[in-house]
Amino acid sequence: MRQDTEQQARSTRPASPARSLLPLILPAVSVGVAASLVYIGLSASAEQLQHVLWGPLPEALGVGPYSVLWMFVVLVATGLAVGLVVWKVPGHAGPDPATTGLDAPVLPPGVLPGLLLATGLMLAGGPSLGPENPIIAVNVGLAVWLGGRLLPRAPGALWPLLAEAATIGALFGTPVAAALVISEALAGRPAPGLLWDKLFAPLTAAAIGAMTTTLLFRPAFDLGLPALGHPRWTDLLAALVIAPVAALLGMCAVRAFPYVHAAFQRLRHPMLMLPAGGLVLGALAAVGGHLTLFKGLAEMAELAHDPTGWSAGQFAVMAVVKLTALLVAASCGFRGGRIFPAVFVGTALGLCAHALVPAVPTALGVATSVLGMLLAITRQGWVSLFTAAVLVASPAIIALLCIASLPAWLLVTGRPQMQLREDGSAVR
Q1: Torsion angle (degrees, nearest 10) of CA 309, 311, 313, 318
Q2: Of 106, 254, 347, 410, which is most buried with the most CB atoms under 10 A?
């Protein structure tokens, strides 16, 4: 009885005094700025290389920049380049990317340059992965290494938390995404004190990271789709259908992930696995077109800019090709994350739903499809809801998304996610 009373008292400990939170502001601000600058530097460098690879270079050679031949050449060459980095650069560009997620391991400093180089080459060369997983790992490694030397008295667990929050804020251009991810992580680690006290430092880092990125890089996730008006009963029905359908398609890729990964692992060497992956990606690009290349952020904006420019069949082909390209790129060893291309897949599926049933508003189709796809790929409920909502910038969509998430979550909960353990088995 006494022990129960003591535990209850600890669990209801009052808020932390301000003097215990104030010393966290400077480390959080520093990590926020640094994480954003690393992300901006990587993205800007990759964009410059992408411009050369897919513009002046093929034109100088007399080849169409998005011809089938050039897509094959660049994707295979990207596989060779990244394979060389993984093979020869110290640290081998970090662990197998199929085994990593947003919760990054703390990597030694010597691994980080190779991981940055492999990620930049991947982003420029066209494989269907985003920068989120490797850039979080790089920023976590840098924060732990530098923070431990500059402020050795600070708790060691502080630096990974700040770096992860700051990088997510920088990636999405808002601290809300980071707050949701950190809250979900903290829910599995019960500790005394108020939640807002625990979020104070990471939210500061996320806000500074987001503001730095917004001021210097200006990321945009709003697709500019017509806002959803007053919801109708038919909108609710559409949401309850589209989100689970998207989740089921995403689960097909998740189910295939260990087998595709094992097939590439049989090649045993990065100079074989990655070029082979590039060859398969070139074939997929030939089927789906150039919009199915890259991480997908600019490409889905192009889709949304003219939603009547493609037929339902073309949208469906792009969605399936992009999802397959994501599966291949994540399996063969390219360093990258799975959220950004999954958002493209959801966008294409949502536009396909609108093309099939014009009564389905484009904003509703895209948001609910992205929601279902991300739930299947990531199992991150808050991130899925946030990303789906921010794409369409329509307040009326929030309630529909929350309702649509329920049947989709019933489909995905307890099942594997698109991440593997070191032995090749799926993470649940």
Answers
A1: 10
A2: 347
Backbone angles phi, psi at 426, to 5 degrees: -75, 145
**DSSP reduced 3-state for 420:** strand
* Listed ranges 25-29, 226-230, 274-278; the one with the highest mean pLDDT: 274-278
Judge whether residue 1 has pLDDT over 60.
no
pLDDT band for 118, please (50, 70, 90 cuts). Answer: very high
What gap in Å lies between CA 249 and CA 65, rounded to an integer? 31
Nearest to 122 by CA among 106, 141, 135: 135
Average of pLDDT values for 369-379?
93
Closest alpha carbon to 265 in 255, 253, 274, 252: 274
Q: Taking residues 45-72, what's their average pLDDT?
A: 91
Contacts of 258 (CB under 8 A, 6+ apart): 416, 420, 424, 425, 426
d(CA 90, CA 136): 19
Mean pLDDT, residues 175-180: 79
The secondary structure of 104-161 as a DSSP string is -----GGGHHHHHHHHHHHHHH--S-BSHHHHHHHHHHHHHHHHHHH-TTS-TTHHHH
Give the helix/strand (H/E) hosting 1: none
Is residue 253 within 8 Å of 46, Cβ to Cβ?
A: no
C-alpha dihedral (277, 327, 388, 28), degrees to nearest 10: -70
In the block, tokens 């995905």 appear at 412
Per the CB < 8 A criterion, the answer to whether 362 and 304 are in contact is: yes
pTM: 0.90
Per the prediction, the chain carries an average pLDDT of 87
pLDDT, tens digit, 9 for 90 and up, residues 64-115: 888 999 999 999 999 999 999 999 999 999 899 988 887 878 899 999 999 9
User: Within 10 Å of residue 56's Cβ, how many Cβ atoms?
Assistant: 11
Burial of 203 (0-12, 13-18, 19+ CB in 10 A): buried
